[in-house]
Amino acid sequence: MTGKVALVGAGPGDPGLLTIRGRELLAQCDVVIYDALISDSLLNVAPKSARRIYVGKRAGQQAKPQSEINELMIREAVAGYFVIRLKGGDPFLFGRGGEEALCLAEHGIPFEVVPGVTALTAVTACAGIPVTERDLSSCLIVVTGHEDPAKGESAVDWSRIAQTPGTIVLFMGIHNLPSIAHNLIVSGREASTPTAVIQYGTLPDQRTVVGTLGNIAARVEEAGVKPPALVIIGEVVRLRERLNWFESRPLFGKTIVNTRASDQSAELCRTLSDLGASVISLPMIRIVPPEDPEPLRDAVRNLSRYDWVLFTSTNAVNAFFDMLFQEGADTRRLAGCRIATVGAKTEEVLRERGVIADHTPEQFCTDALFQSLHERESLAGQRVLCPCSSLAPSDLENRLRAAGAVVDRVDAYAVVPENPDMRPWERMPDAILFASPSAVTNFADWAGKDRLEEFKTHSIFVSIGPATSKRMNTLGIPVQIQAEDHNAEGLVKAMVGYYGGSS
Description:
503 residues; alpha/beta; Methyltransferase, Cobalt-precorrin-4 Transmethylase, Domain 2; 4 domains; 5-stranded parallel beta sheet; 5-stranded mixed beta sheet
């Protein structure tokens, strides 16, 4: 039985610009045949079992010629597979999607075309340049700057284009920009016409070069701009001075490494990305069940003996309640206990479990928790349960015991090191974020002495709080920033403040 091919437009680069229909089909496919600039996060939408075949073209070098791409689609579909041809931008706008669809039709292969968000609108929007504007341009000309060399002579009438008022958007025109600009000027376009070139549009490393039609080619060469890039010619380019929202975000252009565990890093990565950063997720730790779960199980079975249960992390909350439910119990078993938490996020996760904390100190650290409890009432004779990480420092329990409390510390979860791939990065990161002492230790072990020294030269190090900073100092890692609020939101606020923006 013959399969099917879907020509899916992936958008110009930002994975968030993939359409809902495109994501639905990608999640069902057997094979993905994909172009350059397709992000890993998009490829990860496909099932793990799906085969991924790269056919992209970069800097004039193509992994496979178009004829082989066509044959590949046909062969996989004839074999009965559902094939996604994942293409940058929109398949039918300078994307050779029409050629591929015709080939599939000629061979009787069922196909579907999913339009993509085109660079024509997305890249220009991210540069702060509307391609039409009522007072400046009511006409739009979209033209390729790189025609099929087999045609012999150009099918583009540059003379007519030059004399047509409005905006010109040029795809694939960087290599021929000097001659195109010359042709437009000699055909009647003013050399003073505002012109912009946008490289890597919609991506965190987007950059825009602005000039005039007369000098843009020289400015692009001086700036070292390479494909992929889009050229916009017209009065609308002037609006960029007021509408440049994308490149004005407080963390734009910064590459930030997030070392949090994979299952806890998504929200932080998304927030940093929304503020303009290019985020590298480099999990240094993984949260797993404790080696011996019996102490936690025993504590959950005998909660009536405790006056206080202290939660110092969201992981502790989740591990505790998972064990509670495993035992066939629910929140009613906590009826005789008072609950204290460290941090707004821990308090929020506890509330999601159906319990409101009796006490949360204003400062998000264990020192503040002890001090506020101590000031609140006498701790002498109080029975206290501390479910925590197997690697958690013993400072809190020691201070509680010194104040007369009877403390049971139990391992609710364990933290084990991750060993992510040491893959090369296009550039060294601007900042590396640490949210726990164990992440610091594992990062130092993973990087090694020489690599760590290289990071110290090029990057700043950001700590979530005092305990993490203490571990960094012990290992010789400088603490350039420590968050005032010891949580993920505090990390973001500290980064934005350091780079001079405002969240």
